[in-house]
Amino acid sequence: MARRLVVKRSSKKGKPPGSLVHIGAPSDAPAHLRLIRYDQHALHDQPLNAIQALPDLKQDQVTWLNIDGVHQGAVIEALGERFKLHPLALEDVLNTDQRAKVDEYQGYLYLVMRMLRFDPVSQQIQSEQLSLVLGDNYVLSLQERPGDVFDSVRERLQAGRRIRFLQADYLAYALLDAVVDHYFAVLEHLGEAIENLEDELISNPTPQTLGRIHHFKREMLLLRKSVWPLREVLLRLSRDDSKLIKPETQIFMRDVYDHSIHVMDTIDTLRELLVGMLDLYLSSVSHKMNQVMKVLTIIATLFMPLTFLAGVYGMNFEHMPELAWPWAYPAVLLLMLAIAGGLLWAFRRRGWL
Amino acid sequence: MARRLVVKRSSKKGKPPGSLVHIGAPSDAPAHLRLIRYDQHALHDQPLNAIQALPDLKQDQVTWLNIDGVHQGAVIEALGERFKLHPLALEDVLNTDQRAKVDEYQGYLYLVMRMLRFDPVSQQIQSEQLSLVLGDNYVLSLQERPGDVFDSVRERLQAGRRIRFLQADYLAYALLDAVVDHYFAVLEHLGEAIENLEDELISNPTPQTLGRIHHFKREMLLLRKSVWPLREVLLRLSRDDSKLIKPETQIFMRDVYDHSIHVMDTIDTLRELLVGMLDLYLSSVSHKMNQVMKVLTIIATLFMPLTFLAGVYGMNFEHMPELAWPWAYPAVLLLMLAIAGGLLWAFRRRGWL
Amino acid sequence: MARRLVVKRSSKKGKPPGSLVHIGAPSDAPAHLRLIRYDQHALHDQPLNAIQALPDLKQDQVTWLNIDGVHQGAVIEALGERFKLHPLALEDVLNTDQRAKVDEYQGYLYLVMRMLRFDPVSQQIQSEQLSLVLGDNYVLSLQERPGDVFDSVRERLQAGRRIRFLQADYLAYALLDAVVDHYFAVLEHLGEAIENLEDELISNPTPQTLGRIHHFKREMLLLRKSVWPLREVLLRLSRDDSKLIKPETQIFMRDVYDHSIHVMDTIDTLRELLVGMLDLYLSSVSHKMNQVMKVLTIIATLFMPLTFLAGVYGMNFEHMPELAWPWAYPAVLLLMLAIAGGLLWAFRRRGWL
Amino acid sequence: MARRLVVKRSSKKGKPPGSLVHIGAPSDAPAHLRLIRYDQHALHDQPLNAIQALPDLKQDQVTWLNIDGVHQGAVIEALGERFKLHPLALEDVLNTDQRAKVDEYQGYLYLVMRMLRFDPVSQQIQSEQLSLVLGDNYVLSLQERPGDVFDSVRERLQAGRRIRFLQADYLAYALLDAVVDHYFAVLEHLGEAIENLEDELISNPTPQTLGRIHHFKREMLLLRKSVWPLREVLLRLSRDDSKLIKPETQIFMRDVYDHSIHVMDTIDTLRELLVGMLDLYLSSVSHKMNQVMKVLTIIATLFMPLTFLAGVYGMNFEHMPELAWPWAYPAVLLLMLAIAGGLLWAFRRRGWL
Amino acid sequence: MARRLVVKRSSKKGKPPGSLVHIGAPSDAPAHLRLIRYDQHALHDQPLNAIQALPDLKQDQVTWLNIDGVHQGAVIEALGERFKLHPLALEDVLNTDQRAKVDEYQGYLYLVMRMLRFDPVSQQIQSEQLSLVLGDNYVLSLQERPGDVFDSVRERLQAGRRIRFLQADYLAYALLDAVVDHYFAVLEHLGEAIENLEDELISNPTPQTLGRIHHFKREMLLLRKSVWPLREVLLRLSRDDSKLIKPETQIFMRDVYDHSIHVMDTIDTLRELLVGMLDLYLSSVSHKMNQVMKVLTIIATLFMPLTFLAGVYGMNFEHMPELAWPWAYPAVLLLMLAIAGGLLWAFRRRGWL
Predict the structure, then answer these.
(1) Which of B305, C68, D132, E133 would give a disulfide with D111, using CB separation of 3.0 to 4.6 Å?
(2) Contact across the interface for A308 and B306, Cβ inside 8 Å
(3) What is the pTM of this model?
(4) How many domains does chain B have?
């Protein structure tokens, strides 16, 4: 288990608050910038070399700037200057071990959350931090790595659907919705794997089963740690008065909020299921041990008296009249058979066989 | 265990919010529509072929349109157009893995909840999603499959009782009440099965008992997952100011709310009972193992010294004076008897026999 | 365990809300009515044959009508007509599986709660539903069976004490106080039985002990299920503005509320004690098993080497020089003694003896 | 365990509310009254024979009347008349099984709480009920038995410190502070005993250890039951507007409140520690059992094959060529040695030795 | 385990509230005072011999006085007089077993919290109490021992960064931030140690593993006890209206608050992980015992029948025809081989080998 539940941020300790030091897995990959500008009539989609190449924002257009690779501090700093972002917000972008939250600054909202994917090979959740900045007519999305869950949003933008007629707050909603929809996808995979494990547990528990129950409990811990604070964020977005989110978009935010609660409910249900599975496993181990003990006891109880009897007639006393009787040997063999039969009958009556 | 705690909604992932894609068990069955219109004087009950065949609503009449088979997206779309429903509400109707909730839209309330039935053969809860749309003078009820819990409501409507003198909000209440009453029915079956299992556990626990405790814990998880959010829905219906629910109906809503709390209390009590039963089972397994160990120990302790004694006199030394004594053999047999008797007496004093 | 945690209400399912169907243990016993009217000068106490025989209420008199036997639907219906009670309240009276609650209707309060008694023979809590209707100058009390906890209230009324100078709301308080006082009585019995069981557990645990721990956990579940919702009822009565309860009576209601919290605290303490007792029991079982294992191991470890030695000299090889030595036999016996002594010394050093 | 978690109050059941019946351990000892009156200039400290001997209160003096022995109902009744106390408050004074609470009456506050002491001999918490009545310029303190935690307060009064310049509410604060300070003292003793037990558990667990863990869990239950409600009382005293407690005293009340939270935190920490110790104990028992099993298995595995081999050459067949071989006996002995050695080597490789 | 979860404060018991008695580890070391005064133009950093040597505060300068060694009551008393601190605040400074809290006094805020460090040698958290007094233009920081977590703050002050342009409230924030940042550092170490332990648990559990799980659970208890109340303190600082903390600093306080929640989340996650590890360990112990039992059972089941057979043919009956058969001996040996083979085959089929 190479992943860490606690991300190292020692490099940060002792730096002034707001200092732009990247915390997270180090990387040398360059940052990728992609600019999408649209209104109901047209859409421009272009890669960008640097923040400096960003054209002026137009008021009647929605601008969506996506940046992959927040480890490139210089890019983030340039972005901060261009959009006049608060140092604390920039620090949060770079510190990729954030708890989901929303902070309202002068003129823009800063949101941070985790974007999850399920890796079917390692059966682990892959986690990445996503920061969103929602301004009056622009959305900035900042990710750790290339590859995201927003392809469907881009397709809808290209296709010129309803989203093109609406403002930046609706775009932010669409991105949030895509993130939460992927939580469901992760849950689906986990749920399926857990229920498969449950079937396996009932039919054929192995020592590995326990390790896998532990593994899934760990994944659920991670998932819960990501979703729980996002729930509060979405509640605030759907309730608070903020000029940046229009009332008609709040209805949609409430819908994502409902989804996030549904995710939490399912996580809790799966967690309780895992606890129940652990009980089941432990008890099946107890049961097996019981079976082994029974076999041992039956064998010992069966042969000890017989061996004793054989031992008695193996004694070398000179005066043992039975030894001379012609039918003594078969009689003793019969007696042994009778004892064995009687014991087996007693075992069967006790329900041990 | 074929049922899934997490329903697949992957087909949905990446679709725009509000897109009408059915999520749930696929089916080709046609949708069934049934229209009931009534006032205190008359009641018309008729099947409908299509939404398009729906007559205009009259203001002084209550219209109840029931649709079985929400997987028929076209029907739902037509319904949405006819009643001007919000795309999010329509999406929720089709997505049959919803958490119970109530959303207030312009001119109507949208409610979604789970309708439960207990299948005595599989000892499992059968679950189906029910959506209700409560307008000024109409109620739409949307189900996944034919067959529901509303026969009693229909009978009361036919019989011309009080319900005929009241408005659409009272009809909605009557439907909610029928749903919650069925939760009690499910609980009754589960409670009876669990208490039977408890009796069995005390009189004759078997390895299967544990699997059944696990099974019932799982069913309680499912039940709780359905009832818990409905409780909040009913609280809001009985408290919030909404033009669509009159104050005199709110008294009735409060009553259903009380029932839902009672259901929750009983679920929690049964869950705690199941936990207690698990403890009891595990400890009865321990106790049995103890008994087996005792038998083994008694047998081993009894025969090991005797066999050793027999072994001693089976040795072939030339100079063993006892071997020649005439009374040695019966004396050794007596000694063995004395040892066995002494050990048995010691066991009895220790309470092992 | 004949009692059910979930009461059958199937007969009710499908009936319109407010329909007067009795839910609970069926009975043919007639209903008993007892009317007490009093003011500070006089008190009239008389049995009543029927609701119809009830005289008109006088404004300056407190009327207390007690009915034993709510299964007699006709009586309840007549009562409902006479006092103009809401159908939902009447339904709750008949449905004897109610959660404690208070409902405020026009002109009266409807309270429902459970009245508990401890049966020392079966060591079980006997439970009965009590409904109270508190009007301006009357109190109706409705019970399932004859026999209640109100004798002390009747005595105080007869004796002409302070209660005679006060209004109907104080009478209601006195009845509530008597109910909660009986919860304490039940707790006293349970607490004593549990602490006796704890002593027994420490001095001499038996397999029956576990069943009894389970039994008491079950009783605590039932008790908690009764008291928990009553607590909320009493809080509302001591806080809410209601014309029916005067401020000077609210002080008394607050006192009963404090008592109910005290009951809850004690229940929780006893529940935690029972959990601790279960741990203690399971661990004492483990300990016993350990002892048994030790005995087995000591015996086996002692005799196996000796028996092996005897076996060696029981072999029939022609060339075993030791067999011919004159002192071989006593030497081997001494060797055996030495081995046994050495092992015993080793066991003692390991603390096994 | 002679102490009861539930105090008998059956003698009370059926009495009218407010009836002055003592509930608690019966006693014949007379009540002791001690009157302290002070202002910044002088202090009078005198025993009192009866309530009737109490001089009139002076407005500019603080009067502190302490009564040991609330079982003397007559004294309490006289006190009630003299200070015009509400019957419910008097009832609470006599009922020495109260949950901590504060009740505001016309012109005075009534507080009740538990005063705890740790008896190092029985390792048990000794508990006594303390009632405080805080009036405008007087404090009444009512205890069950002589001996209390207030000596330090009396000393400070004698010494003429700040407390002499302040009012009755500050005196009440000083008494509360002394009570909570003693909770810390109890916790210190318990904490020390528990941590000693933890050391013992790690170095040398015995069956008695478990009983002592259970004992301390029980004491923590009792302690928690006393402190938890007091916390609420102190919160109310430090927050609520009451003419009887001045704002400058509320700062001090907040300080006692903080102390009570600290006590609760420590109780919870110790409880969790005890749970961890139980796990540790149970697992050390498992581990010991494992060791015993290993010894048994090693012995059995070692000697069973050897004994079998000896048995084979003890058979009496006429045609066993090995028996006649001159080197057969030492060869068999060597073979036995080799088998034993091989097995021991296998055990060591498995890590059993 | 020499550290105590409960610090002795008996020396305090019975003292008047506000009395300046040091509670904590006794020490004779002298107190160290260090005075830093700065504005945006200049910074003066100097040690101080005594409080009396403190120059007058200038309004346009921020004064930070740090004191190491609060056990020197005289120093604290002098400080109290100089800054007119409330006796309760001084008492809290000296009592080094405080729960984190913030108290607002006239003209200054008093904060107390724990400063944590992880000692990698003993694998234990080292804890020290830190008191902060935030006045209009000064900050007092009071520690138990020399050595703290504020070096980075001092460096930033020296370097003349933003912090030099801001007020005393920002300095207080910077100190709080440094404290919480060190919590992350402690968590990192603990998290790494726990995850290493998890790997060890899966690959090679030893009896010591359990003791270490217990050790880390204990450390998490201590950590949680420190962080939990600090969280509330930070929430109040970021929300409450206080003239001493400016709105622009509150944004920063909110950021520290978010960090503290993140710390709590991680603590809870690690605690749950530890619980899961305990289950895993216990079950691996069970599994090992199962293995041992299996070996024992296999050996016993294999050799008991064979030994019995050898015993039979070791009997000395005169009439045992088999003994004379020439091929009897090899036939019996073959039979024994067949029995052993058959048993081994049966074991393999049961999955025991």
Answers:
(1) D132
(2) yes
(3) 0.81
(4) 2
